[in-house]
Amino acid sequence: MRQKAQDLFEKLGYRKIMMAGILLTGIILYGFLMDSVQSDTYDIQLFQLSSETIRSEKTVEDPVKTELERQRLTEEVSPSYQFMSEIVDNQTALVASIFGYIMDVKAAPEQEEDRLTQEEMIAELREDLRLLETSDNGLRLTDDMLSSLLSLSEARLISVQEELNNLLQSSLNESIRVEEVARYRTEIEQDIRRNETIPNDIIQAALTIGRFGIIANEVVNEELTAKQVEQIRNSVEPTRILQGQVLVQEGQVIDREVYRQLELVGMTEERLNYKPLLGLLIFVIIAVGLMFIVISRSKKDDKNKVTEMLVVMVTISISLILMKLLSAISGNFDLVISFFFPTALAGMLICLLVNERAAVYVTIFVSAAAGLMLPSGYSATLQVDVAFYILFGGLTAIYLIDRVGGRGRLLHISLAVAGTNALFVAFYLLLGQTQYSWSEVGFYFSAAIVSGLLSGALAIGFLPFFESAFGMLSTMRLIELSNPNHPLLKKILMETPGTYHHSLMVANLADASCEAIGANGLLARVGCYYHDIGKTKYPQFFIENQVNIENPHDRLPPEKSRDIILAHGIHGAQMLKKHKMPKEIIDVAAQHHGTSLLKFFYYKAKETNPDLDENTYRYQGPKPQTKEIAIISIADSLEAAVRSMKEPTSEKIKKLVDSIVEDKLKDGQFEECDISLKELKKVKAVMCDTLNGIFHSRIEYPKETN
């Protein structure tokens, strides 16, 4: 079926197919997004009769009614009081400081001339008490009161202080609120007047100090009260206008409240609003235009561009279907369930199957489409919060995907995506003006984590279907195949260590050369790892594996040696097919020698048979079909030839590179792939630079005779 599809594409023309696919993608986008941007509106006026019954087309919160209900309940909340036990100590300490100031002023200096007059003592005492006089409670002691206190002896002052402290402690140990302060001050005045220990001549001063000492010790706990008010406000369920709810009956007068509700749901114009549809068309044009630019600028051939376009189209369609499902069920939840959307799914798939540039484009587009389709609020057309949520999650996966070492490790990236999602949710909750309960916070963070893990799980699940349906070899699959623990690579290492080392060297050459001309360097590298696996069938017949043993070809006729050497490509392809390896890797094994001539044994056989048919000593082929295999064929010949040189120099290497490439060109080995002479020039330059650093001495083959 894949071959039939390829034949159809070639018949119609890849460019036409790609343009048709781009157009189809635009139609799909418009169809999915159209419902998200349009709504019915009505031309209605205040205090007129409604000509029909109008129902709400969406569920929105009624902030006015919600706030009114919250205010009603918060007004009923009684303030919470807290008893301040430390006030007793504070007030008695203040009374003690008052009497301490008095006794300090009364203390007579040793020298007669330094002693203060009564007026000077009152002035100094007034200065000491200034802070207490300017406090909130305001100590108001007149000069006469201060004079009477100064006239007492130190013993009497201490006695009066103790009596006042006892009375204050007795009163302050009871709960006193602000409104009760006056009553307790009156009570302490009465207690002071009844106290016979306090002299009558200082009774006014004692009354003033006693009243000063009485303050409220049970005050409103603002923090606790605020929490209670907040709990009450958060417990209020938002009043909502529900989808399908009747806003106005036919014949009903449209009063201000009804009109406000109609405005709230955006249904106050009786004409079809073409603006959203036109805006959506512009959005789709931009989206498909960028899609065309991204894919057309790919360095792949037309066939691969069409494949990439189809992958992008299918990935976007999957994302839109998931959005549609979430949008359809969102009305059953009071919370925003859009955060469950797998943010990194599209980015992961495109990055693995196409390239990073296309993945960034698709992530940006999917995030924008989600802003239109996925509900997260009640008024905005474009939900920026959801758009950014998907954008950040997708970009996180794209820029971490290169570090993945296998399909299982993709879940590690999912954890990073989940972390990014959780951080964005934290930003979303902190930035918003809405107060969230702990259960709501837990819901949103759980959704973020599920979104990240779901992205990786779905990507792993979808990858095999994409690879099978479109015949693609993903980066993830190539990385898995490059693992040295792969059974076939371990087989090469254990049975043909020389071939294994040769393959690594060829891989370095091919990878660097492919990257220089925009070909798939990773594919070339992995293909090189397996290109000579056919040598494991007869390892001792290949010179790189002949360590401390006699060359068996010295005892064989050229025909037998030919059969063994020429068969290693066929054997390799068969072994790779048996292990269900990707077609691209099998092609490398089968095509890396093309139909080139096995010159050494051909000329050896020709010595005894001058009429020998050259074709019998050529590889079966086919010739390289891709740039990557063409480069591998050059690197394979070059690495073996350089390692066989004695005392190689940069000049010798350059001449050898030119010679091998020229020989393959003349032999027509590149006729069936689209590698250009300009690209071959770059390849030669890269290989010269690379070989100067990695070659080692190697046995030199006997010179060929013509």
TrEMBL record:
GO molecular function annotation: hydrolase activity
Domain named HD: residues: 499-641
Transmembrane portions of the chain: 12-33, 277-295, 307-329, 335-354, 359-378, 413-431, 443-466
Record keyword Hydrolase present: yes
InterPro entries listed in its UniProt record: HD/PDEase_dom, HD_domain, HDIG_dom, Metal-dep_PHydrolase_7TM_extra, Metal-dep_PHydrolase_7TM_intra, PgpH_phosphodiesterase
UniProt KW keywords: Hydrolase, Membrane, Transmembrane, Transmembrane helix
UniProt keyword Protein transport, yes or no: no
Protein name per Swiss-Prot or TrEMBL: Phosphohydrolase
